[in-house]
């Protein structure tokens, strides 16, 4: 059996809410190495530093990509 590596990227609480079941299923799959990458609003104090919610759910975050979001303006989010 070939083991696959699947990375899941999440940048907001809304996206994580949609992906959380899939993330859990991937973590339980015997032929999958799951990698969770948190970015965007998850790492922003302004947006609630919601990476804590991911970790509190029991899902390990394998990588953090800090985009240094300062506000919700089009320039900052681009």
Give a description of the structure:
- The protein is of the alpha/beta class and 78 residues long.
- It is built from 3 helices and 3 strands.
- The radius of gyration is 14 Å and the shape is elongated.
- The termini are far apart.
- The relative contact order is 0.21.
Mean pLDDT across every amino acid position = 92
Main sheet summary: 3 strands, parallel
Number of helices: 3
Shape field: elongated
The strand count comes to 3
Q: What is the helix/strand order?
A: EHEHEH
Name the structural class: alpha/beta
Helix content: 25-40%
Low-confidence stretches: none
Beta-strand portion reads: 15-25%
Side-by-side strand order of the widest sheet: 1-2-3
Summarize, please:
By secondary structure, the chain is α/β, with parallel strands linked by helices. Helix content is about 35%, strand content about 25%. The radius of gyration is 14 Å and the shape is elongated.
Which descriptors would you attach to this protein?
78 residues, alpha/beta, 3 helices
Topology:
Layout lengths: L3 E7 L2 H16 L3 E8 L11 H6 L6 E3 L8 H4 L1
Parallel strand pairs: 1-2, 2-3
């Amino acid at each position: 059996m070939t083991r696959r590596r699947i990375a899941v990227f999440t940048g907001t609480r809304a996206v994580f809410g949609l992906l959380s079941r899939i993330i859990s299923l991937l973590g339980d799959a015997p032929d999958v190495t799951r990698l969770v990458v948190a970015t965007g609003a998850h790492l922003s104090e302004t947006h609630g530093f919601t990476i804590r919610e991911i970790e509190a759910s029991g899902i390990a975050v394998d990588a953090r990509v800090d985009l240094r979001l300062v506000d919700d303006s089009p320039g900052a989010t681009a």
